Amino acid sequence: DAGITQSPRHKVTETGTPVTLRCHQTENHRYMYWYRQDPGHGLRLIHYSYGVKDTDKGEVSDGYSVSRSKTEDFLLTLESATSSQTSVYFCAISETGVATNEKLFFGSGTQLSVL
Amino acid sequence: QKEVEQNSGPLSVPEGAIASLNCTYSDRVSQSFFWYRQYSGKSPELIMSIYSNGDKEDGRFTAQLNKASQYVSLLIRDSQPSDSATYLCAVNPGNQFYFGTGTSLTVIP
Lengths: 115, 109
Description:
The structure holds two protein chains of two kinds. In chain A, the strands form two sheets. In chain A, strands 2, 4, 5, 6, 9, 10 and 11 form a seven-stranded mixed β-sheet that branches. A four-stranded antiparallel β-sheet of chain A has the order 1-3-8-7, with no helix packed on it. Chain A contains no helices and eleven strands. Chain A has strands at about 5, 10-15, 20-25, 30-40, 40-50, 55, 65-70, 75-80, 85-95, 105, 110-115. Chain B is mainly β. Chain B is about 0% helix and about 55% strand.
């Protein structure tokens, strides 16, 4: 998975609790992304980062925050988890962002269940 | 209208046949197009990228792009049971990647 590690791989939590997912990369790529994948919706962008401490929102960012204090780590936090955030979360990386010809590579994913 | 449309399938083909997967997109300025393969419970894996009109071949895979008609397709020749997976089409119009919901392919031995 292109030197991308996500943790945890599986998480079950209760509504209202905070949850943090971690993405760690060894490729030294500048850009990192968080996607969620749900049946019927495909992959949707939550947040992305274009450098240390530089982040921006994607199309489904409500209820999520992110932080990037080091090039290799990108954290996704659900401040107060809801059942609608039950999903599979994928981290992805790219070397130079969304320029033409750029490719995305994905981590192995985190299955999150909010009860 | 969704940015990227795919027939969800399932598409079933016999082993050894050609599987044809199609994708249409709405943003005419899109320049980069990708096909990802995703096995059940696994992450998407990039298998093809194409940037110019025409065909691009890589082993048993051929990607075809027609920007005028706004479609991109993936042909899998000599399909194998190991090709059974969901295939995601992705498009980059220059600002972010947009993904289709995927087409489920089953290759029957």
